[in-house]
Design a protein that fits this description.
Blueprint (H helix, E strand, L loop, with lengths): L20 E6 L4 E6 L7 H4 L29 E4 L4 E4 L2 E2 H7 L2 H10 L5 H12 L6 H8 L7 H15 L9 H27 L12 H10 L10 H14 L6 H10 L5 H13 L6 H12 L5 H9 L18 H17 L5 H13 L1 H5 L6 H11 L7 H22 L28
Antiparallel strand pairs: 1-2, 3-4, 4-5
Helix pairs in contact: 2-9, 3-18, 4-7, 6-7, 6-11, 7-8, 7-18, 8-9, 9-14, 9-18, 10-11, 10-18, 11-18, 12-17, 14-17
Bound molecules: acetyl coenzyme *A.
């Protein structure tokens, strides 16, 4: 008789096909196993019951880059890549981009519900009153070379915050987490703006608490000799929308880094520094910078077909195109494209826009991109907006990090409070040498 095992370790024998279960026949042994299916998943640990002999380790699944592995149960963000849907806590991104503000969206992500009036004003008050950074951090920033990449400055400075707030190690204290949340959301734009000013050799501009979150950020970036900085409302709103669009994106590379590092119970500043480091790469948050560099390299509309040829030849990638999850379109790209035109109306048309539009037009018609379901992602247009606002390309991933902070905090907290989570520690398939004898150096070839 065939022996089967059911999910949680029982060895009961089943003959009938059970619903919501997966029957696996191990052809090495002929044994059958019924594994329960919950929420569209089998538990990878259930595979470990599949063994040839009792002493075996059991079966594992091999999934480089986690293409098909759910690492957590989450209630924060839903993405349906086929339908082009993105929702935070159930609210469509299009609605939030139209009606919400970044701080309200951050509250929603972190607390699970939209705030009422008094909750929002309390939340805004506390974040606004945590925007100043310790004077020693200024000295720290001054130590960087003038041409240091602002993302590297951001990563190091966020890690350094951990030395200023040692109590942040109390990660299981709700009160402490709340305080670090205010600090992270409040201080990130200040550090980002200071890093920018440092690269220009300009004096730092202190936060102005009369202004909105985004308005104050623009103030810290761009204020010069005027007594009071008045942000342009269209630019302020466009940047706020960009922060909303970037606020969370479920288990992407940087969020997984935040959860992974946080799972060892390090403090939130160190986890955030790790998340920022993951975001920095050109395949993730560094893509907006890479898009601009690509558009500049292409140089003119006439040269677009030649560049597309190189992409199709596998020589280069079309930056700002493609997404691990969206295989239809990235709903954020649509919203950003609209915001871009509003910014261009004020700041003048970005000369790279025509090249971007031609790249998009050709790629959307070309079978190479269509068959691989490669569409413009959020980063294809965000860089054009940032550049039109007068920001250098090196600041683009930094702006992404400011928006993503809300998502990182909410995902980190969800991970900490999830009783099923433990320190993140994947397995490997070892295909290296077996035991070898050590060869003295004189005997080596
Ligand atoms: N340009 C050209 N070809 C591409 C691109 C691209 N941008 N993206 C994917 N492809 C091709 C791959 O070469 C592959 O072709 P093949 O089947 O002939 O081998 C096929 O499309 C599938 O691509 P994968 O690499 O399997 O897709 P994956 O899901 O691993 O990668 C990623 C997703 C990293 C975003 C990729 O599309 C990419 O590198 N894009 C450019 C960088 C970028 O814009 N990143 C930003 C992502 S959004 C964000 O992080 C906010």
């Amino acid at each position: 008789m065939e022996k089967s095992s059911t999910g949680a370790g029982s060895t009961e024998v089943r003959t009938a096909q059970q619903q919501d279960s997966l029957t696996i026949v191990d052809n090495r042994t002929g044994k059958r196993y019924d594994l329960p299916i919950t929420n569209g998943c089998i538990r990878a640990m259930d595979l470990r019951k599949i063994k040839v002999e009792d002493g075996d380790f059991g079966l594992m699944s091999y999934d480089p880059a986690f293409l098909n592995t759910a690492s957590c149960i989450s209630k924060i963000t839903l993405i349906d890549g086929d339908l082009g849907i993105l929702r935070y806590r159930g609210y469509p991104i299009e609605v939030l981009a139209e009606k919400s503000t970044y701080l309200e969206t951050a509250y929603l992500l972190i607390h699970g519900e939209l705030p009422n009036r008094s909750q929002l004003s309390d939340w805004t008050y506390h974040i606004t009153h945590h925007t100043f950074i310790h004077e020693s951090i200024k000295k720290f920033l001054d130590g960087f070379h003038y041409d240091a990449h602002p993302m590297s400055m951001l990563i190091s400075t966020i890690a350094a915050l951990s030395t200023f707030y040692p109590e942040s190690k109390s990660i299981f204290s709700a009160e402490s987490r709340k305080k670090q949340t205010y600090r992270l959301l409040g201080k990130l734009p200040t550090i980002a703006a200071f890093a920018y000013r440092h690269s220009l050799g300009l004096p730092f501009v202190y936060p102005d608490n009369d202004l909105s979150y985004t308005g104050n950020f623009l103030n810290m970036l761009f204020k010069t000799t005027e007594l009071k900085y008045h942000p342009n409302p269209t630019l302020e709103r466009a940047l706020d929308i960009l922060f909303i669009l970037h606020a969370d994106h479920e288990q992407n590379c940087s969020t997984s880094a935040m959860r992974g590092v946080g799972s060892s119970q390090s403090d939130p500043y160190c986890s955030t520094a790790a998340a920022c480091a993951a975001l920095y790469g050109p395949l993730h948050g560094g893509a907006n910078e890479a898009v601009l560099r690509m558009l500049m390299e292409i140089g003119s509309v006439q040269k677009v077909p030649e560049y597309i040829k190189r992409v199709k030849g596998g020589e280069v990638k079309l930056m700002g195109f493609g997404h691990r999850v969206y295989k239809n379109y990235d709903p954020r790209a649509k919203i950003i494209k609209r915001a871009a035109y509003e910014v261009f109306d004020i700041m003048g048309r970005n000369p790279l826009l025509d090249i971007a539009l031609e790249v998009e037009r050709i790629a959307l018609e070309d079978d190479y991109f269509v068959s691989r379901k490669l569409y413009p992602n959020v980063d294809f247009y965000s860089g054009l907006i940032y550049q039109s606002m007068g920001l250098p390309v090196t600041m683009f991933p930094v702006l992404f990090a400011i928006g993503r902070m809300a998502g990182w905090i909410s995902q980190w907290e969800e991970m900490l409070l999830d009783p099923e989570q433990k320190i993140a520690r994947p397995r490997q398939v070892y295909l290296g040498y077996g035991q070898r004898d050590y060869i003295p150096i004189d005997d080596r070839v």
